Amino acid sequence: MKYGLIGEKLGHSFSKTIHEKLADYTYELKELKENEVEGFLKAKEFEGINVTIPYKQTVFPYLDVISKRAEKIGAVNTIVKKGGKLYGDNTDYLGMKALIERVCGDIEGKKVLILGSGGTSKTAKAVAEDFGASNVIRVSRSGKDGAITYEEAYGKHADAQILINTTPAGMYPNTDGCAVDLDRLPNLTGVIDAIYNPLRSVLVIKAQERGISAEGGLFMLVAQAVYAAEQFADMTFEEGTIEKVFGAEMNEKRNIVLTGMPKAGKTTVGKMLAKNLNLEFVDTDKLIVDREKREITEIFAKEGEDYFRKVEAEVIAEVSLKNGLVIATGGGAVLRPENVLNLKKNGQIFFLNRPVDELTPSRTRPLAGSVDKILKLFKERYSVYKSTCDHMVVNNVSAADAVERIKEILSGRKNILVLNGPNLNMLGVREPDIYGFTTYSQLCELIDRHAKELRINVTTYQSNSEGDLVTKIQEAYGKADGIVINPGAYTHTSVALLDALKAVQIPTVEVHISEVSKRENFRQISYVRAACMATITGHGVNGYLEAIDLLVKG
Ligand code: DQA
Fold first, then answer.
1. Which class in CATH covers the domain with range 93-216?
2. Same fold for the domain at 3-89+222-229 and the one at 413-553?
3. Which CATH number does 254-410 carry?
4. From the CB of residue 308, how many other CB atoms can be counted at a distance below 10 Å?
5. I need a surface site. Which of 147, 259, 490, 533 has the fewest CB within 10 A?
6. Does domain 413-553 have CATH number 3.40.50.9100?
7. Whose CA is nearest to atom 9 of ligand 1?
8. Nearest residue CA, atom 7 of ligand 1?
9. Neighbours of 237 (CB within 10 A)
């Protein structure tokens, strides 16, 4: 083989699809037994290879040159043949570095816990130390070889801010495991799991539920492959290559899960979306009917709801571990927390929220046979749909519209609405000693430029009329990911704007150009503030850009 991967068991490797997105070579997976490694390396019948478990140390004696970082970590994952000589390097280091930067930002001065005792734990330790973490502590079950035990970690290092899991707890096929008890590490701000199958381990899901920035190992896997491919071809890929390949890989592997009320449009939207994205569509209700060889109404009538829910949970557990599916779930699927957890492992959950007066009764749905039943169900379940989803999509226009909105969310491109109230169209002319000399159209240009840099969509709108602003906020329901609002003088008078913001529940930041807190008494009240996640005052027109940044960070 010319390019490829050697290791013991490679059945579940993603490396082939990643490498073949990067370059036009064929990337082969070659399983070797321990006693075959020497012969393979000595024959040198390859140009560039990656090495995986358990041979990252085994290969050392057969290499002519070993990079400093590979030496330091004690593991080689990339070997390139140049002029007949074999050069070994460790691009896992660079992959881990890229993942830490992405998930945790700057970790200088922070306390880092690394779980596990294998090669990846050493890579993580080297990166965290090089980033200037104040304390890097390895934790393992045995507590040997410079590591401490879990109990010691909970006792002495409960103040740790960053956690990196390199153990296989929670990895396919035993995906229910979780490496650590997050309740006992209450100060965490960043969690990384080297596991990428499933895409989100239970650890990552639980950390995200607590509001901690957390991600699995796919980004690291892609990044190490990009750095390895650069060495194979002796070139540098253009900036953004890692993100691009990661995005493409995610699009193939990730499931899109649709939840929501019976008749919310999950099947219609799901089929359309699957066709559009070239993914397979499955409906968990249909899988249950196929398995049971009878209709759902019959299962309910003969066996009762509990039996149905049991079969549903089994079907969901199975389907959740597959990749690249659009999954429409039964209306009650998310009532069981275990189903939600399973669906999240490889999937992003979209709550398809159709206005309740458009949900028509259906005779084939045992719990949604009449308008009264539907209303009762909606009241019981709305908060569950809302709290268990990754994203809510309002299905109030058409299925095609909902499909576009889902695709927009998946692309990661956020939609931000910037609203300005009365007299802000007079910026530049209006009391420049208070509001500055930037005109309204210059402000819009500044915002546009910033949006391009951040790769987001921003819509700007100004009105002198309170009602128009209320309408704009209402129209943003289900479409905008964030609102920046400077209500001008309506800040101090408008309950209607406050109510509109509360109605749509879109994350909102309030902005004032001037330092309102230092001005007249009547400017000290802000009604909208109660519906805003933050307020920025007195930063001039820059305040708008800061507000956008806040919303993009989420
Ligand atoms: C303002 C402050 C308000 O009090 C005033 O009515 C405005 C502009 C600001 O941006 O500083 O119109 O919101």
1. alpha beta
2. yes
3. 3.40.50.300
4. 19
5. 533
6. yes
7. 512
8. 488
9. 16
- Is 56 a residue of the active site? yes
Give residue 479 CA to ligand 1 midpoint distance, Å.
Answer: 27
pLDDT interval class at 375 (50, 70, 90):
confident
Q: How confident is the model at residue 100 (pLDDT cuts 50, 70, 90)?
A: very high
Q: What tokens does 372 get?
A: 């009264």
Structure-token pair, residue 95: 């992959």
Decide: pTM greater than 0.85.
yes
Nearest-angstrom CA–CA distance, 278 and 269: 14
Domain chopping of the chain, boundaries: 3-89+222-229, 93-216, 254-410, 413-553
pLDDT value at position 255?
A: 98
- Mean pLDDT throughout 204-224? 96
- Kindly indicate whether the domain formed by 3-89+222-229 is annotated with CATH number 3.90.920.10: no
Mean pLDDT across the stretch 207-224? 96
Q: Atom of ligand 1 at shortest distance to CA of 523?
A: 4
Distance (Å, rounded) from C-alpha 68 to C-alpha 217? 24
DSSP string, 357-420: GG----TT-TT-SSHHHHHHHHHHHHHHHHHH-SEEEE-SS-HHHHHHHHHHHHTT--EEEEEE
